[in-house]
Structures are given as structure tokens and as C-alpha cells.
Amino acid sequence: MLRNISLRHLRCFVAVADAGSFTVAASRLFLTQSSLTATIQQFEETIGVKLFDRSTRRVAMTNEAVRFKVEAEKILSHFDGALSDLQAFSQGRQGHIRIAAAASVIEHFLADAAHAFKQEYPDTTISLRDAGAELVETMVAGGDLDFAVTSRHRGHDDLVYTPLLEDRYGVVCDARHRYGASRKPLRWSDLDPADYVSFSSDTGIGAFLRENVQRQDMFSGVRDEISSTTSLHAVLRLGASYAIIPALAAGMGQFAPFVFREVIGPRLSREICLISRKLRALSPSSTRLLEFMRRAIDERPLPPGVSALPGKAQREKPAPAKGQRRRSSMATPA
């Protein structure tokens, strides 16, 4: 009967599917090969479906197994995540917090908040990552991160996005560049794609701009591209290029030598969100750290072009029309 199927069957199935070998999978699971083979056979007999085609050299999944593997991985991920949550709650004041954040959030708020938090809760350790927005969403959804503080990328069904900050976009460049030397209002139609350095599409900034800026000539074809604000600094100091970044990123110390000018006609902004898993409560330690960060946001002056948001949770909804997936502040062209 199906009630005899357990998580052990699913783990064995996924291990064999990933390894393509009973021998390798058995070694990874610390099982004997005969025990693993018996478990898979019992699984196949119970559900009435053949999962693997066995040969002398390779074990291949059947079509049914390929479709089922995605669901099996989701079940295991949710189960392991739930246990991780339970363990975090049981640890009370002790524990380990795994988070990711945009580099600008780390510099402006999170580093100081984490330091203050550690002064009060020294037994809690923190892993902090500065990763691409696409990877961050995947890691939070999979339970590899407790939460993240960054911009929304593609949106994920298993995630909740709670807005914290609104952050307007503008041009950043060396003062020697023509956009840095000019004083007249800067419009999207004024921007020359020839000396524009774009962010790659797997970053939050890159994905947002490609979807919301009505200037596809700035993203088409092969062009100069970077994947982080860290590498952008080295490019801009030469004085020949410009990039488009949010005001919060432009307020980082590394961009102090450069000029930041908001682009109008229309104005464009992103939201910095707390990204967490749906139906998964944050651990007490994570909640405390977030309180420290919210306090930092409330107490210190925000850079020009950045404003605090009330923080109403935004759960996933059916995909809207193209160009409206992310929140963009489009003011009347000035």
C-alpha cells in the first residue's frame, strides 16, 4: 500500500537518479548496494511503476521517473527545511543564521545591524552571502538560506516578498564623462548605448532594467557587461563609460568618487524586500536580527533617492502583463 512509502524510499530514489549508479548512490547513502537495490525494488512494486532501466554500465531513469524526481526533490526539500526551522526554534538564543543581501544593503544597514546583534547575542553565528538575485531566490526557496534582503528577481511561488525600501535608478559615471559634467535633467532618451556598461541578466539590477527600461537597444547584441557593483568600480574609474544603478548602490563608499544622477522621463525605482519562505516562520534569532536591521533603517538618514516603505507582505500572484511584474515607480515625465 502507498502508506508504506517513506522518505527513505524518496531519498534512495533521488540518490540513484543523481548518481546514475546503484554502487555510487549506495556509497553516498552509507548503505550496502543490496539494501539500496531492495529499497528501490520495493518502491517500484508498491507504486506499480518502473523507475530505472538497468544495464551493465549505466542506470537510466524512465520517463515516469524523470517527471517524479522534481516532486520528490520538493518533498525532501520541504521536509528538511521544516526540520531546520524546528531546530532553529529549539535553539533559542543560540543558533546559526544563514542570510543573503544586496551589497548595498550590507554596507548601509546589515553590517552594522549584525555587529550590534552579535554584541547582545554572542552565541549566535551568522553566514552572510552577497550572491546574484536569481541564486538568492532559489536558495531561500530551497531552505539553504533563512531569509534574504535584496530586490525581487523573477518571483518564486514559494516565497513572500515584504517591501522595505524604495530605491530610484540613475546614471553613475566619472565626473569627466559627459553625463557627469552636464547639469541639465537626464532622460532615458538621452542615454547613448555605445558607452553603456550593463549588468548581466542573472542579477537583480540587470533583470529589472531589461524588463522595465523601454530602450532595448541598450541591451541587445554583444556589449560590455558586469555582474556586480564591485567590478563596476574598476570600469567606471577609467572615465569612458557609465552604468545605471539604484541610488542605494550609488551611496556605497566605493562610488564616492563618482557622480550619480537620477534619470527622469519617467522615473524608475525598485523595491528592496525581505524575502522569506511561504508558510515558514522565521527562527527567533532571525527575527531578532531583522529587528536590529529595521532599527538601522529607521534611525539613519537614507541616501537621496531612497525611501522607507511600510513593509506590507506581497505574496505571489498570477503573472501580470509584461513590464509590470516588478514594482516600478513611473512618475509623470518631467
Q: Please tell me how large the radius of gyration is.
A: 24 Å
What class do helices, strands and sheet pairing give?
alpha/beta
How many beta-strand segments? 14
**Total number of distinct structural domains:** 3
GO molecular function, one term: DNA binding
Organism: Bordetella genomosp. 8
GO cellular component, one term: cytosol
Family: Belongs to the LysR transcriptional regulatory family.
Task: Tell me what the structure shows.
- It is a single chain.
- The chain is an alpha/beta fold.
- It folds into three domains: 7-90, Winged helix-like DNA-binding domain superfamily/Winged helix DNA-binding domain (Arc Repressor Mutant, subunit A), CATH 1.10.10; 91-164 and 271-312, D-Maltodextrin-Binding Protein, domain 2 (3-Layer(aba) Sandwich), CATH 3.40.190.10; 165-269, 3-Layer(aba) Sandwich (D-Maltodextrin-Binding Protein, domain 2).
- Helices cover 40% and strands 21% of the residues.
- It has helices at 7-19, 22-29, 33-47, 63-90, 103-120, 133-141, 178-181, 204-212, 229-236, 247-250, 284-299; strands spanning 52-54, 59-61, 95-101, 124-129, 147-151, 159-173, 186-187, 198-199, 225-226, 242-246, 259-264, 269-277, 306-308, 314-315.
- Helix 1 crosses helix 2 (22-29), helix 1 (7-19) packs across helix 4 (63-90) and helix 2 (22-29) packs across helix 3 (33-47).
- Mean pLDDT is 84; it is low at 312-334.
